Structure formats: structure tokens, C-alpha cells
What we know:
The protein is mostly beta strands. The protein has one helix spanning 17-20, and strands spanning 25-30, 34-41, 50-52, 56-62, 66-70, 75-78, 90-94, 97-104, 110-117, 126-128, 140-142.
Amino acid sequence: MQMEKSEGWVWPEELDTLMAAPQHNKLLFENDFVRVLDTLIAPGEITKVHTHKWPASLYIVCLSDFIRYDDDQNIILDSRKLTKGRDPSTALWTEALPPHAVENVGKKNIHIIRLKLRNSPATHNDCIGPMPADQSKPQHWNSIEHL
């Protein structure tokens, strides 16, 4: 399936997560509307620099401490410094992400199912996470906190 150009997307197709980091990402399903990826990063492993072209819903199967680097190897985020953790069986939303790499610095696997919405405008703004207990409105997190 040929990848279409997303509005506002400036990074090369070679940085697509399946092309740039295939050892950590497995395609489960893809059509004109969605792309479903199974991401697995073992303790001590680091992904190659890659992008996420489309916004996605993430299902956290298992999460460990991680460091996210930009494409110049600068630390963007160290999850060990976050006040809020992400529990297994959590679902959350993330916008498209520019070039980055993820290093698993914890003791457990990072295992995430990512459902990407194709044909959505490519942005990397605020993300929306799980609904609070009262279900009245979603919680917001900066997209930098997501994988």
C-alpha cells in the first residue's frame, strides 16, 4: 500500500516507523483508514530514529521507563522524571510525532498497540488521554510524554 502525503508532513518516508525501526514494530493491519502496529521494545534496547506520521490511539500493554531522543540525540523526555505514570491497560491519544528514538531504560518490556488514523492532518500538538472517572471531559497531556 502506498503511503499518501499528509498535510503539513515534512519528514521523508524513510523515517516511517515501519521502514526505519522494523525490529521494534510489526504491522498487524492496514487499509485506507487505519494502520495498526504492535510495538515491542525490550529492556536496554533503543529504536532507530523514526516518525509517526498520523495521530493514533495507543493501548499500553506493558510500559517501562524510557528516554525519548530527538533526531540529534538530545533528550526530549526521561519518563523517570514524570510525576504521572502510565498503567498497563491504559488507552490514550497522541498526535503525529516528528523524528525521535526511544530507549527502554527500565526492567520491563515496552509493549504498545498503536492504531493510527490515516488521512488525518499530520500535527504534533496536545494529546488527549483516558477519561477521568466522572467521564465528563478528557485529560490533556503534552504529546512529548507519549512514545
